[in-house]
Design brief:
Shape: globular
Number of strands: 12
Mean pLDDT: 95
CATH superfamily: L-arginine/glycine Amidinotransferase, Chain A
Number of domains: 1
Oligomer: single chain
Helix content: 10-25%
Largest sheet: 3 strands, mixed
CATH topology: L-arginine/glycine Amidinotransferase, Chain A
Distance between the termini: 28 Å
Strand content: 15-25%
Radius of gyration: 17 Å
Length: 241
């Protein structure tokens, strides 16, 4: 993890024991919400492999195995594909396309896909073709100033999004209720909606207060070491409903 890919952050020393403890608390929080946790075998030669969200887009009908934008991360998809093959039919993003799962936000039958440094136009085109047969539409969204679309916007309740409008054009999310992050917490837009509750970084208390004012059940987690690796609460799991 100390050798992870970094794009927008300066490298800091990561306390690996604390990172492991924080990840275990994250798993416990999901288990407490009723999820069964399936762990994949650790891959020490793949320092970003804890961020499994980027390796697949899981829908009810299909699991799409991505082709991550960082070349060093592409081998991560092998073990994830093996794990998902038992629960979903598989489809694959192929070269020269790139897609990171962190750039894909599903709202009902709409997939918003970030045009970021990790997801290219060909990746968006291939994803659109793969999901069209199942009735999904794809809307490309420009992303600026952050790693992934989900760094800038995530779902926190039915038809309700948490957004940093400085990193993504909020107008594209027509029909959704928007809650803006506190301006003092630019990294606060990443939240994980799971079984009606929201897992959320304890480092963003002002925005957490805004979410609670909306009647949202917010469950705070310390992810300080995970954040140093440019990770967040959505990154560390693939939720399969």
């Amino acid at each position: 993890m100390a050798r992870c890919e970094l794009t927008h952050l300066h490298r800091e020393a990561i306390d690996l024991d604390l990172a492991a403890a924080q990840h275990a608390a994250y798993e416990d929080a999901l288990a407490g919400l009723g999820f069964t946790i399936h762990q994949l075998q650790a891959q020490p030669h793949l320092p970003d492999s804890v961020f499994v969200e980027d390796t697949a887009v899981v829908l009810e009908e299909v699991a799409i195995i991505t082709r991550p934008g960082a070349p060093a991360r592409r081998p991560e998809t092998i073990s994830v594909a093996e794990a998902l093959a038992g629960v979903r039919p598989l489809a694959h993003i192929t070269a020269p396309a790139t897609v990171d799962g962190g750039d894909v936000l599903r709202i009902g039958s709409r997939l918003f896909v970030g045009q970021s440094g990790r997801t290219n136009h060909e990746g968006i085109r291939q994803l659109r073709d793969l999901v069209a047969r199942f009735g999904y539409t794809v809307c490309a969204v420009p992303v600026d100033g952050c790693l992934h679309l989900k760094s800038a916007v995530t779902q926190v309740a039915p038809e309700t999004l948490l957004v940093n409008p400085r990193w993504v054009p909020a107008a594209v999310f027509e029909g959704c209720r928007l809650v803006e992050v506190d301006a003092r917490e630019p990294h606060a837009a990443n939240a994980l909606l799971a079984a009606g509750s929201v897992l959320y970084a304890a480092s963003c208390p002002a925005t957490a207060s805004r979410l609670r004012a909306e009647g949202i059940d917010v469950r705070l987690l310390d992810i300080s070491e995970i954040s140093k690796a440019e990770g967040a609460v959505t990154c560390c799991s693939l939720l399969i409903g």
